[in-house]
Specification:
Order of helices and strands: HHHEHEHEEEEHHHHHHHHH
Number of strands: 6
Number of helices: 14
Radius of gyration: 20 Å
Structural class: alpha/beta
Largest sheet: 4 strands, mixed
Helix content: 40-55%
Distance between the termini: 34 Å
Strand order of the largest sheet: 1-2-6-5
Length: 368
């Protein structure tokens, strides 16, 4: 692994990492923060549009065309072009067979809503079936907001020998990143060393409408990540923004939750830093988030991995194809060396890529 450059850290870097307001972080990685419920934490900007971006008219399932699209860079590097490119791929791929999924249902969850949700996830995995995913190694549990006792017993039974029983706190009613109530649609995942992910989803007893697109596609991206053998080992060498950043960008783009009057609302919450930060400041922060284990931990605790990660993946998917980024992920797992992976997959060293990312994020906060 290359050494972290001896750059002068902006005095605000560690403060930003340590003091950004976090919702509450799961004790397990790979969780979903998206939900349709009132989590008690207001979004940075109230969104105006909930409908997905428009895909190509009357898409049809065409495997050859889908493969062409995932190998193409979007026609422009602006957010709308990037998001529309991914929406088009998903719209076509979701018309195919998808990937079959099964779940254990609690006694109180609405079985019809659960069936609709399972089908939505299966179709969302259609896009990822073009990236080496043939099955999803998950043990999935779907429940309602009143199922704490059922959840507790379920976790105790299936997550042996180390069940994560503190993810749902009955005193505060905080489960992962959401406070379950009758209108909730939220969940989390607990990956294991064996490669199996234990996935939990709450569908509130009064939840109406289609499954939350952001939650579905955020978690589908995690299913893709977890389906690649060796992914847990690779997380040790990946920058802290990679895993949640990819899932967040995919979910945000397909859901298209966006306020035209506040463009950066597409990242859901404010990015770290501000307009006073220089490109060099961003390079120093990104170096920390690549090489410094303490900074990586703080990045996850303060959820920079979601927000800054989404901005970084906007750059990656705007300048490289989805297939290129898939190769970057595979190379990271194969080599266990982030620098080797970036050099092979995108033709830039890790530090060169950080410099490009720093310029991009700096420009976002400059409004250019």
């Amino acid at each position: 692994m290359p050494q972290r450059p001896n750059s002068t850290r902006h005095p605000g870097h560690r403060q930003v990492l340590a003091t950004l307001v976090a919702l509450t972080v799961l004790v397990v990685p790979g969780c979903s923060k998206e939900s349709d419920d009132d989590t008690g934490t207001a979004p940075a900007v109230t969104t105006e549009a909930e409908a997905p971006l428009e895909a190509d008219p009357a898409p049809v399932y065409d495997e050859d065309r889908i493969r062409e699209l995932i190998a193409q860079v979007p026609p422009a590097a602006d957010w709308e072009s990037i998001a529309n490119h991914i929406v088009d791929i998903n719209a076509m791929a979701s018309m195919g067979p998808g990937i079959p999924l099964e779940a254990e249902l609690s006694p109180t969850v609405d079985p019809e809503n659960a069936a609709i949700t399972i089908d939505a996830y299966s179709k969302a995995m259609g896009m990822w079936s073009f990236f080496d995913v043939v099955e999803v190694p998950i043990v999935w549990s779907i429940m309602s907001e009143v199922d704490y006792d059922w959840w507790y017993q379920r976790v105790s039974d299936i997550e042996t020998p180390r069940p994560a029983l503190d993810v749902w706190n009955p005193e505060t009613n905080l489960m992962g990143h959401c406070y379950p109530d009758a209108y909730s649609y939220c969940g989390y995942g607990n990956p294991t060393e064996s490669g199996v992910m234990f996935q939990y989803l709450i569908i509130g007893s009064k939840y109406e409408g289609a499954p939350n697109r952001n939650t579905v596609h955020h978690e589908a991206a995690h299913y893709y990540q977890s389906a690649i053998p060796g992914h847990l080992e690779a997380e040790r060498i990946l920058p802290c923004w990679f895993i949640e950043g990819q899932a967040s960008f995919i979910g945000n783009s397909i859901a298209a939750t966006y306020n035209a009057g506040a463009p950066l609302s597409r990242f859901q919450r404010p990015l770290p830093g501000d307009a006073s930060w220089t490109i060099e400041d961003w390079e120093a922060l990104l170096a920390d988030l690549t090489y410094d284990e303490t900074a990586k931990s703080e990045c996850r605790q303060t959820e920079i991995n979601y927000t800054l990660g989404a901005a970084i993946f906007e750059y990656l998917y705007g300048h490289y194809s989805m297939l290129d980024i898939h190769k970057l992920y595979l190379e990271s797992i194969r080599t266990m060396d982030w620098n080797a992976a970036t050099t092979t997959a995108v033709g830039l060293s890790a530090d060169e890529l950080n410099a490009e990312l720093a310029r991009y994020v700096h420009a976002l906060l400059q409004g250019t």
